[in-house]
Design brief:
By secondary structure, the protein is α/β, with parallel strands linked by helices. The chain contains six helices and 13 strands. The strands form three sheets. Strands 11-10-9-12-8-1-6-7-13 form a nine-stranded mixed beta sheet, with helices on both faces. The longest helix has 17 residues.
Length: 265
Amino acid sequence: MEGFRIVVLIKQVPDIEKVRFDVETGRVDRSSAPAETNPFDLNALEAALQIKERCGGTVTVISMGPRQAESSLKDAIARGADRAILLTDPRLAGADTIATARALAAAIKKLGGFDLILCGEKTVDGDTGQVGPEVAELLGIPHAAYVCELREISRDRVVVVSDMGDKYLYELELPALLTVTRELNTPRLPTLKDLLRAKRAGIEVWTADDLSEHVPANMLGYQGSRTRVVKVVIPSAEHRKGIIYRGEDAVEKIAEILLSEVAAI
């Protein structure tokens, strides 16, 4: 059997525990926290590498973001990816899910052919889970979301288990797209030798002009987005409140409060 042409979509995200939000613009202040590869995407990459090792083929990783996202692509190469492409251009900035999907789908079309596309079920900074299925729809291929087990893969089909609360068995014709959960596998760690090799690896950089054959620039980035963030509200953290009752009537007061709480249920 000939090897598979696998595409993995990854995103570099800020450490969500440390990042700040710009409430004026409604955007994530990515400079406020260290960057890392979206954890779910590492499971997608690991799945691609396992298929490559078992069946042969190539793994191409694509990411959209600023130039600093090259570090995540180099990490992907260190883990075993064969080729890495970064989509970066001021005209791609501010994209919502559909504008992002258009750019990624155009890049995949520019590659010229593929058998399987893998991506994480969602990103920790957006948490929508929309981009993968939107890419599949734009490419006109079948897709399955929340894949927690890959049962079988052959030249013309893939059989997977999808965890949608209940678990479902799906058979899809290839080419297809899968979004995967963290239960699918445990991502490997690159060796020091691999990291040094990847440090010297070249990252291909494509701009909106490179995608123009498949999508016009006005359909990308902020200009091509269908949604707008109108307002960002950061809820205040609530803490436990303590009240101390003293005196002879303390027990009666506590009993009254407990009775009122029970009555409110």
